């Protein structure tokens, strides 16, 4: 399985930001021009971009379609994007705006049967299920609605359900490590891989340096989301791509 580095741009109020552990009250602002940020990633050799609408993740109603279309039309980056995807029409709109893949988070935990139908309808290569997880009494529980509460179903059980319904791409964020530069938890991703070795799993949360990128690859995962480490300069994209 090939390995892909996904530089990430999280947008809130039109700016590139990073949250600590998914907390909207703990925000760091980086760049008022998300498009320019994306093009810098392309200049450094990226072929994919992970684009998140943080406002929509909490309130619904994706707002980044003009930015998505502009990036996609330039043809330098394939884009997987999400935030506030609630309906079939949302998916169709994002694909029409140029998304290569649409990321579905909360609904994948709240209504997995509906998301399974969308995977069948749009094709497994067009949908990424996102499980953003927290540990609760020994279980990995997905955080939903902009990480403001936990779902009741555990992540491994949801992965098995989606695996059995054709899932190809899973993005799993370790919320406790997200934005903390604390390193990844290989045990989490090893457990996910054991449940669904045929699913391409993307590591997210805690990546701080080249060693973490290598560790993500060693688990057998298919990619890693690179966020704060890139924006703060702890990791260069060219180094990550080279390893």
From TrEMBL:
<dbReference type="GO" id="GO:0000105">
    <property type="term" value="P:L-histidine biosynthetic process"/>
</dbReference>
<dbReference type="GO" id="GO:0005737">
    <property type="term" value="C:cytoplasm"/>
</dbReference>
<dbReference type="InterPro" id="IPR006062">
    <property type="entry name" value="His_biosynth"/>
</dbReference>
<keyword id="KW-0963">Cytoplasm</keyword>
<comment type="pathway">
    <text>Amino-acid biosynthesis; L-histidine biosynthesis; L-histidine from 5-phospho-alpha-D-ribose 1-diphosphate: step 4/9.</text>
</comment>
<protein>
    <recommendedName>
        <fullName>1-(5-phosphoribosyl)-5-[(5-phosphoribosylamino)methylideneamino] imidazole-4-carboxamide isomerase</fullName>
        <ecNumber>5.3.1.16</ecNumber>
    </recommendedName>
</protein>
<feature type="active site" description="Proton acceptor">
    <location>
        <position position="10"/>
    </location>
</feature>
<keyword id="KW-0413">Isomerase</keyword>
<dbReference type="InterPro" id="IPR044524">
    <property type="entry name" value="Isoase_HisA-like"/>
</dbReference>
<comment type="similarity">
    <text>Belongs to the HisA/HisF family.</text>
</comment>
<dbReference type="InterPro" id="IPR011060">
    <property type="entry name" value="RibuloseP-bd_barrel"/>
</dbReference>
<dbReference type="GO" id="GO:0000162">
    <property type="term" value="P:L-tryptophan biosynthetic process"/>
</dbReference>
<keyword id="KW-0028">Amino-acid biosynthesis</keyword>
<feature type="active site" description="Proton donor">
    <location>
        <position position="132"/>
    </location>
</feature>
<dbReference type="GO" id="GO:0003949">
    <property type="term" value="F:1-(5-phosphoribosyl)-5-[(5-phosphoribosylamino)methylideneamino]imidazole-4-carboxamide isomerase activity"/>
</dbReference>
<dbReference type="InterPro" id="IPR013785">
    <property type="entry name" value="Aldolase_TIM"/>
</dbReference>
<dbReference type="Pfam" id="PF00977">
    <property type="entry name" value="His_biosynth"/>
</dbReference>
<dbReference type="InterPro" id="IPR023016">
    <property type="entry name" value="HisA/PriA"/>
</dbReference>
<keyword id="KW-0368">Histidine biosynthesis</keyword>
């Amino acid at each position: 399985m090939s390995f892909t580095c996904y530089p990430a741009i999280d947008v809130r109020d039109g700016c590139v930001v990073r949250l600590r552990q998914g907390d909207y009250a703990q925000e760091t602002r980086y760049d008022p021009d998300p498009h320019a940020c994306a093009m810098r990633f392309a200049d450094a050799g990226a072929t994919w971009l992970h684009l998140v609408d943080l406002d929509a993740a909490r309130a619904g109603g994706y707002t980044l379609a003009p930015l998505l279309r502009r990036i996609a039309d330039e043809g330098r980056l394939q884009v997987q994007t999400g935030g506030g995807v609630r309906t079939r029409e949302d998916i169709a709109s994002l694909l029409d705006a140029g998304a290569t893949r649409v990321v579905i988070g909360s609904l994948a935990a709240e209504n997995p049967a509906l998301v399974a139908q969308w995977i069948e309808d749009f094709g497994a290569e067009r949908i990424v299920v996102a499980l953003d997880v927290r540990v609760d009494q020994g279980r990995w529980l997905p955080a939903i609605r902009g990480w403001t509460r936990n779902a009741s179903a555990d992540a491994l059980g949801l992965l098995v359900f989606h695996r059995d319904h054709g899932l190809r791409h899973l993005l799993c964020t370790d919320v406790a490590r997200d934005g903390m530069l604390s390193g990844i938890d290989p045990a989490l991703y090893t457990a996910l891989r054991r449940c669904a070795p045929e699913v391409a799993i993307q590591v997210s949360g805690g990546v701080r340096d080249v060693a973490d990128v290598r560790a993500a690859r060693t688990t057998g995962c298919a990619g890693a989301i690179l966020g704060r480490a890139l924006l703060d300069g702890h990791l260069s994209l060219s180094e990550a791509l080279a390893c």
